[in-house]
Specification:
- It is a single chain.
- With 247 residues, this protein is of the alpha/beta class.
- It folds into 2 domains: 186 residues, Vaccinia Virus protein VP39 (Rossmann fold, 3-Layer(aba) Sandwich); 52 residues, N-terminal domain of TfIIb, CATH 2.20.25.110.
- It has 7 helices and 12 strands.
- Strands 3-2-1-4-5-12-10-11 form an 8-stranded mixed sheet, sandwiched between helices. The protein has a 4-stranded antiparallel sheet with strand order 6-7-8-9, covered by helices on one side.
- α4 links the parallel β2 and β3.
Protein backbone atom coordinates (compact mmCIF):
# COMPACT_ATOMS: atom_id res chain seq x y z
CA UNK A 1 0.00 0.00 0.00
CA UNK A 2 1.30 3.44 -0.92
CA UNK A 3 0.64 6.14 1.67
CA UNK A 4 0.36 9.90 1.52
CA UNK A 5 1.25 11.97 4.55
CA UNK A 6 -1.09 13.03 7.36
CA UNK A 7 -0.87 16.68 6.34
CA UNK A 8 -2.50 15.88 3.01
CA UNK A 9 -5.12 13.66 4.63
CA UNK A 10 -6.02 16.30 7.22
CA UNK A 11 -6.26 18.98 4.54
CA UNK A 12 -8.48 16.79 2.42
CA UNK A 13 -10.61 15.87 5.43
CA UNK A 14 -11.09 19.58 6.15
CA UNK A 15 -12.45 20.05 2.64
CA UNK A 16 -14.84 17.12 3.20
CA UNK A 17 -15.93 18.74 6.45
CA UNK A 18 -16.67 21.98 4.64
CA UNK A 19 -18.69 20.04 2.05
CA UNK A 20 -20.73 18.25 4.73
CA UNK A 21 -21.38 21.46 6.68
CA UNK A 22 -22.38 24.25 4.29
CA UNK A 23 -21.89 27.91 5.17
CA UNK A 24 -25.67 28.33 5.40
CA UNK A 25 -25.80 25.98 8.39
CA UNK A 26 -23.09 27.92 10.22
CA UNK A 27 -25.03 31.15 9.64
CA UNK A 28 -28.19 29.59 11.11
CA UNK A 29 -26.31 28.18 14.10
CA UNK A 30 -24.66 31.53 14.88
CA UNK A 31 -27.94 33.42 14.47
CA UNK A 32 -29.47 30.99 16.97
CA UNK A 33 -26.65 31.60 19.45
CA UNK A 34 -27.02 35.36 19.21
CA UNK A 35 -30.79 35.39 19.71
CA UNK A 36 -31.37 32.42 22.05
CA UNK A 37 -28.61 33.36 24.48
CA UNK A 38 -29.18 37.11 24.04
CA UNK A 39 -25.52 37.74 23.26
CA UNK A 40 -24.40 41.36 23.17
CA UNK A 41 -21.24 42.88 21.65
CA UNK A 42 -18.35 42.25 24.01
CA UNK A 43 -19.87 39.16 25.60
CA UNK A 44 -17.32 36.38 26.08
CA UNK A 45 -17.71 33.12 24.16
CA UNK A 46 -15.52 30.02 24.57
CA UNK A 47 -15.29 27.81 21.47
CA UNK A 48 -13.83 24.48 22.56
CA UNK A 49 -12.46 22.25 19.81
CA UNK A 50 -13.01 25.12 17.41
CA UNK A 51 -11.75 23.28 14.31
CA UNK A 52 -11.12 25.66 11.44
CA UNK A 53 -13.07 28.39 13.25
CA UNK A 54 -16.36 28.59 11.41
CA UNK A 55 -18.25 29.63 14.58
CA UNK A 56 -15.41 31.51 16.27
CA UNK A 57 -14.83 33.76 13.26
CA UNK A 58 -18.55 34.33 12.63
CA UNK A 59 -19.18 35.26 16.28
CA UNK A 60 -16.14 37.55 16.36
CA UNK A 61 -17.49 39.34 13.28
CA UNK A 62 -20.58 40.06 15.38
CA UNK A 63 -18.21 41.62 17.95
CA UNK A 64 -18.33 38.84 20.52
CA UNK A 65 -15.08 38.42 22.46
CA UNK A 66 -14.21 34.88 21.39
CA UNK A 67 -11.65 32.48 22.81
CA UNK A 68 -11.08 29.63 20.33
CA UNK A 69 -9.27 26.50 21.54
CA UNK A 70 -8.01 23.51 19.56
CA UNK A 71 -5.08 21.12 19.67
CA UNK A 72 -4.31 21.15 15.92
CA UNK A 73 -1.72 23.69 14.87
CA UNK A 74 -2.95 24.07 11.28
CA UNK A 75 -6.36 25.21 12.54
CA UNK A 76 -4.79 27.61 15.02
CA UNK A 77 -2.59 29.20 12.37
CA UNK A 78 -5.49 29.57 9.92
CA UNK A 79 -7.79 31.22 12.47
CA UNK A 80 -5.04 33.47 13.81
CA UNK A 81 -4.27 34.76 10.32
CA UNK A 82 -7.95 35.53 9.70
CA UNK A 83 -8.34 37.25 13.08
CA UNK A 84 -5.28 39.43 12.49
CA UNK A 85 -6.20 40.28 8.91
CA UNK A 86 -9.77 41.29 9.80
CA UNK A 87 -8.93 42.80 13.20
CA UNK A 88 -11.40 40.57 15.01
CA UNK A 89 -11.89 40.32 18.81
CA UNK A 90 -10.75 36.71 18.62
CA UNK A 91 -8.02 34.99 20.62
CA UNK A 92 -6.75 31.58 19.62
CA UNK A 93 -5.09 29.03 21.89
CA UNK A 94 -3.37 25.79 20.94
CA UNK A 95 -3.92 23.45 23.87
CA UNK A 96 -4.70 19.94 24.94
CA UNK A 97 -8.45 20.42 25.35
CA UNK A 98 -8.56 18.53 28.63
CA UNK A 99 -5.86 20.75 30.13
CA UNK A 100 -7.09 24.17 28.98
CA UNK A 101 -7.59 26.75 31.73
CA UNK A 102 -8.52 30.43 31.68
CA UNK A 103 -9.06 33.23 34.17
CA UNK A 104 -11.98 34.50 32.09
CA UNK A 105 -15.63 33.77 32.78
CA UNK A 106 -17.78 33.24 29.70
CA UNK A 107 -21.43 33.90 28.92
CA UNK A 108 -21.47 31.01 26.47
CA UNK A 109 -19.34 27.95 25.72
CA UNK A 110 -19.84 25.88 22.57
CA UNK A 111 -18.79 22.36 21.56
CA UNK A 112 -19.91 22.02 17.96
CA UNK A 113 -19.36 19.62 15.08
CA UNK A 114 -19.78 16.41 17.12
CA UNK A 115 -16.58 17.26 19.00
CA UNK A 116 -17.81 16.13 22.42
CA UNK A 117 -18.20 12.59 21.08
CA UNK A 118 -14.46 12.33 20.43
CA UNK A 119 -13.94 11.58 24.15
CA UNK A 120 -14.63 8.54 26.29
CA UNK A 121 -16.99 8.88 29.26
CA UNK A 122 -14.32 9.76 31.81
CA UNK A 123 -12.75 12.46 29.64
CA UNK A 124 -16.17 13.79 28.58
CA UNK A 125 -17.13 14.24 32.22
CA UNK A 126 -13.82 15.97 32.90
CA UNK A 127 -14.30 18.27 29.91
CA UNK A 128 -17.85 19.22 30.88
CA UNK A 129 -16.75 20.01 34.43
CA UNK A 130 -13.88 22.07 33.08
CA UNK A 131 -16.18 24.04 30.77
CA UNK A 132 -18.66 24.58 33.59
CA UNK A 133 -15.91 26.08 35.75
CA UNK A 134 -15.29 28.71 33.06
CA UNK A 135 -18.94 29.79 32.76
CA UNK A 136 -20.61 32.59 34.65
CA UNK A 137 -23.53 31.56 36.83
CA UNK A 138 -26.49 31.46 34.46
CA UNK A 139 -24.13 31.09 31.50
CA UNK A 140 -24.81 28.44 28.89
CA UNK A 141 -23.23 25.55 27.04
CA UNK A 142 -24.31 24.54 23.54
CA UNK A 143 -23.41 21.05 22.33
CA UNK A 144 -23.89 19.90 18.73
CA UNK A 145 -23.84 16.13 18.17
CA UNK A 146 -24.76 13.59 15.54
CA UNK A 147 -23.52 10.64 17.60
CA UNK A 148 -26.25 10.39 20.20
CA UNK A 149 -27.63 6.88 20.59
CA UNK A 150 -31.04 8.23 19.56
CA UNK A 151 -29.50 9.28 16.23
CA UNK A 152 -26.98 6.55 15.44
CA UNK A 153 -29.19 3.54 16.15
CA UNK A 154 -31.52 4.54 13.31
CA UNK A 155 -28.99 6.04 10.90
CA UNK A 156 -25.93 3.77 11.24
CA UNK A 157 -24.36 2.61 7.98
CA UNK A 158 -21.48 0.17 7.83
CA UNK A 159 -20.09 1.38 4.50
CA UNK A 160 -20.29 4.49 2.35
CA UNK A 161 -18.35 6.14 -0.45
CA UNK A 162 -18.29 9.42 -2.35
CA UNK A 163 -16.20 11.31 -4.88
CA UNK A 164 -14.53 14.58 -3.86
CA UNK A 165 -13.09 15.93 -7.08
CA UNK A 166 -11.10 13.03 -8.52
CA UNK A 167 -10.48 11.41 -5.15
CA UNK A 168 -12.61 8.52 -3.92
CA UNK A 169 -13.51 8.69 -0.22
CA UNK A 170 -14.66 5.47 1.44
CA UNK A 171 -15.69 4.71 5.01
CA UNK A 172 -16.01 1.37 6.78
CA UNK A 173 -17.70 1.66 10.19
CA UNK A 174 -18.33 -0.71 13.07
CA UNK A 175 -20.79 -0.19 15.94
CA UNK A 176 -19.06 -1.56 19.04
CA UNK A 177 -19.96 -1.89 22.71
CA UNK A 178 -18.23 -1.61 26.12
CA UNK A 179 -17.94 1.31 25.69
CA UNK A 180 -20.56 2.11 23.05
CA UNK A 181 -18.76 3.65 20.08
CA UNK A 182 -18.50 3.78 16.30
CA UNK A 183 -15.04 3.10 14.88
CA UNK A 184 -14.66 4.32 11.31
CA UNK A 185 -11.83 3.59 8.92
CA UNK A 186 -11.64 6.34 6.30
CA UNK A 187 -9.85 5.58 3.05
CA UNK A 188 -8.64 8.04 0.42
CA UNK A 189 -8.02 6.59 -3.05
CA UNK A 190 -6.12 9.06 -5.21
CA UNK A 191 -6.27 9.21 -9.03
CA UNK A 192 -2.58 8.18 -9.17
CA UNK A 193 -3.28 5.05 -7.09
CA UNK A 194 -1.96 6.32 -3.76
CA UNK A 195 -4.00 5.30 -0.72
CA UNK A 196 -4.26 6.70 2.79
CA UNK A 197 -6.25 5.31 5.70
CA UNK A 198 -7.13 6.73 9.09
CA UNK A 199 -9.30 5.47 11.94
CA UNK A 200 -11.59 7.66 14.06
CA UNK A 201 -13.70 6.85 17.09
CA UNK A 202 -17.00 8.50 18.05
CA UNK A 203 -18.26 7.55 21.49
CA UNK A 204 -22.02 7.06 21.70
CA UNK A 205 -24.04 8.57 24.55
CA UNK A 206 -27.78 8.59 25.09
CA UNK A 207 -29.59 11.82 25.89
CA UNK A 208 -30.08 10.52 29.42
CA UNK A 209 -26.32 9.90 29.81
CA UNK A 210 -25.55 13.43 28.58
CA UNK A 211 -28.08 14.86 31.03
CA UNK A 212 -26.47 12.98 33.93
CA UNK A 213 -22.99 14.15 32.94
CA UNK A 214 -24.17 17.75 32.67
CA UNK A 215 -25.78 17.52 36.10
CA UNK A 216 -22.58 16.13 37.61
CA UNK A 217 -20.68 19.05 36.05
CA UNK A 218 -23.01 21.64 37.63
CA UNK A 219 -25.03 22.25 34.47
CA UNK A 220 -28.77 21.80 34.09
CA UNK A 221 -30.13 20.21 30.92
CA UNK A 222 -32.44 22.87 29.45
CA UNK A 223 -33.50 21.73 25.97
CA UNK A 224 -32.57 19.70 22.92
CA UNK A 225 -33.32 20.75 19.34
CA UNK A 226 -32.87 19.22 15.91
CA UNK A 227 -33.10 22.65 14.27
CA UNK A 228 -31.63 25.27 16.61
CA UNK A 229 -34.40 27.13 18.42
CA UNK A 230 -37.07 26.00 15.99
CA UNK A 231 -37.70 22.27 16.19
CA UNK A 232 -37.48 20.03 19.25
CA UNK A 233 -35.43 16.89 18.75
CA UNK A 234 -37.24 13.61 18.08
CA UNK A 235 -35.92 10.07 17.69
CA UNK A 236 -33.75 9.46 14.63
CA UNK A 237 -33.20 13.03 13.46
CA UNK A 238 -29.72 13.57 12.01
CA UNK A 239 -28.32 16.10 14.47
CA UNK A 240 -28.97 17.48 17.93
CA UNK A 241 -28.32 20.76 19.70
CA UNK A 242 -28.25 20.41 23.49
CA UNK A 243 -28.53 23.47 25.75
CA UNK A 244 -27.13 23.40 29.28
CA UNK A 245 -27.12 26.17 31.89
CA UNK A 246 -24.62 26.84 34.68
CA UNK A 247 -26.42 26.33 37.97
Amino acid sequence: MNNINDTYFDGFYKEIWRTIIPDELTVKEVDFMLSYFNLQPGDKVLDMMCGYGRHAIALAKKRMAVMAVDNLEDYIIEISETAEKEQLPLKVVKSDILKYTSNDEFELAICMGNSLNFFNAGDTQKLLSQISSHLKKGGHLLINSWSLAEIVIKSFKEKSWSMIGETRFLTDSKYLFHPARVETESILMMPDGKIETKTAIDYIYSINEIEMMLDKAGLSFKEIYSIPGKKKFILGEPRAYIVGEKI
